[in-house]
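User: Here's a structure from my thesis project, written as structure tokens. My advisor, Dr. K., wants to see whether a designed sequence matches the one we expressed. Can you design one independently, without my sequence as a hint?
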């Protein structure tokens, strides 16, 4: 048995170093991880963009409904209630940059009646163009907003049926 004396050094010879192949293996693992994770990250990005578009369209639809109901209630004789609401809704939607062909305005079928409420419902189809969805997200999403405004008890609504 050999003994190591103080001040002497020794070299242990073992298996050949695999340092080069270890780096190559790590690079390969990183590439596989990228290939698996990248589509998931793109999908998450697409969902975030879609959520932003849908929330923006929902807020715009609420604004359109509010404006339409307000105009119909404040100026019932000017355009005839329901017509006033529909025209105001289309005007406001155009100002907000909404696609008029994807907009539907439904006014209160009971029309303007003093002392009651007037309801306007706006439906809008949000087109999800240019979103990296990998075919997993729909092409359009429907949003709706509803606004109810009180009609003054002394409102002049002659000829202003919805």
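Assistant: Designed independently from the structure alone:
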């Amino acid at each position: 048995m050999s003994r190591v004396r103080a001040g002497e050094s020794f070299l242990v010879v073992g298996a050949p170093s695999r340092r080069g192949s270890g780096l190559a293996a790590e690079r390969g693992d990183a590439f596989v991880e990228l290939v698996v994770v990248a589509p998931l990250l793109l999908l998450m990005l697409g969902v975030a963009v879609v959520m932003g578009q849908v929330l923006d369209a929902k807020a715009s639809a609420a604004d359109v409904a509010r404006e339409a109901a307000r105009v119909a209630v404040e100026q019932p004789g000017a355009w005839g209630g329901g017509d006033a609401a529909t025209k105001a809704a289309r005007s406001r939607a155009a100002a907000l940059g909404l696609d008029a062909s994807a907009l539907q305005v439904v006014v209160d079928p009971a029309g303007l009646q003093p002392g009651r409420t007037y309801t306007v419902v706006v439906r809008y189809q949000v087109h999800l163009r240019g979103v990296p969805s990998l075919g997993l997200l729909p092409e359009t999403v429907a949003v709706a907003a509803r606004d109810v405004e009180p009609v003054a008890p002394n409102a002049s609504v002659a000829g202003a049926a919805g």
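When you compare it with your expressed construct, this may help: The CA atoms of residues 117 and 162 lie 12 Å apart.
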